[in-house]
Amino acid sequence: MLIQCTKKLLDVIERKPVAYEEKNLLFSWHANLITLNRRKTVVLVNDKNRYVVVLYGLKAKDFKRFDEIILNAIRLTLVDECIDEEIVEEYIRQSGEVLYGKTKNSSYVGKMNTACNVVYLYEDLLLDNTIYQTFVSKKTSRYWVGKQEEGYISPSKEMFKDLEAFAGRPIFKCRAVELKVTLEMENHNIWRRLIVPLNSTFTQFHKVLQAAFGWLDYHLHEFFVYGDERWDILHIDINYFINHPAYNKAGYKPVVNLVSDEEAFDYPRKDGIERKLEKGIRLSEYIPKYKRLQYVYDFGDDWRHYIEVERVIEDYDKNYAICVDGEGNAPPEDVGGEYGYDKFLEIISDKNNPEYEDMLIWGKYQGYRDFDIEDVNKNIKFAYDSFLL
């Protein structure tokens, strides 16, 4: 594998460049050293498809074993894309010895600099607890870039095509989970059955749920993960309990509360439930060990989604979530909870109501539409392809 480095990076890793040109550009990368949040960051860009791999928070000891770290960064990022581990290991094996050279020419340096500029956009998403930034690598690789002869390309899609040609077979294979997600409402039956890769983060899962129910992500959200222990109902004020955000209709007690905003920590919990920021936490950290979750969206309208783990799929053949079944139209944003939704439905079902036309227009603007599984899956796939997650 040829790593063509800027002079700044060559000086830091203390390697003398070799005169070597990789014939297969899939095994050739350009690398630059930049600083993000006062930490040394290396950005690798594949010469064939412009796929990006990011290393962050590197220390002197890491540069002493840079060969190993580069290979591991590429390995972990591709596996995190849900690419079959056998294919990833064969790619690493055929890459051969890691060799270091100088940057090739201004064209490649320009492509590398473009990738570095995109990484700067996502520095707030970098994780402090690992040098391997697979999430930012994937997100940067979905940023469309210009290619003279082809217009704009998605480096991630190009890498997938190149690896499929390399392997001679489909490349995706990962563990996934099938979930039934039910919107808790007294008068309506609204649910979706989803298959989601287990290496998805809870932030990604949030975006999948938004697409599945037609929400527009206007508001804050949180997750509760439930164990098998139940609350001692006899010692809790039942009215407070029902209105408690962690309430579970079967009485299960949460093991953790995952929040989407750091401001949540300004309000300490008094119920003993552990609270964590969801950033970087994957489904696999809690599923399938725990089989019950709740997703709360919009703390005003208080939409509560009960999530049940139905089965684990060991050889899922996609790298994105899909909806396989469902029923019922989800309410529009800001409708005012279930009572408001009932009033909304009452108005749009009566053409003689003076608010009929205005309410139809408002509902459409707020995302209200009939449940259509094809549209749901298009929206989920678009979110993965553009990595709006």
What does this structure look like?
- Helix 3 packs across helix 6.
- The strands form three sheets. Strands 12-11-10-13-14-8-9-15 form an eight-stranded mixed sheet. It has a five-stranded mixed sheet with strand order 4-3-2-1-5.
- It is 33% helix and 26% strand.
- The longest helix has 16 residues, at 106-121.
- It has two domains: 2-167, Nucleotidyltransferase, domain 5, CATH 3.30.420; 174-330 and 371-386, MM3350-like (Structural Genomics Hypothetical 15.5 Kd Protein In mrcA-pckA Intergenic Region, Chain A), CATH 3.10.290.30.
- The protein is of the alpha+beta class and 389 residues long.
- It comes from Caldanaerobacter subterraneus subsp. tengcongensis (strain DSM 15242 / JCM 11007 / NBRC 100824 / MB4).
- InterPro entries: DUF6933, MM3350-like_sf, Plasmid_pRiA4b_Orf3-like.
- Residues 2-158 form the DUF6933 domain.
Task: State the shape.
Answer: elongated
Q: What is the share of helical residues?
A: 25-40%
Domain count, please report it.
2
Radius of gyration: 24 Å
The overall pLDDT average reads 93
Give structural attributes.
TnpR protein, MM3350-like_sf, elongated, alpha+beta, DUF6933, 12 helices, 15 strands, Structural Genomics Hypothetical 15.5 Kd Protein In mrcA-pckA Intergenic Region, Chain A, 33% helix, 8-stranded mixed beta sheet, Nucleotidyltransferase, domain 5, 2 domains, 389 residues, 5-stranded mixed beta sheet
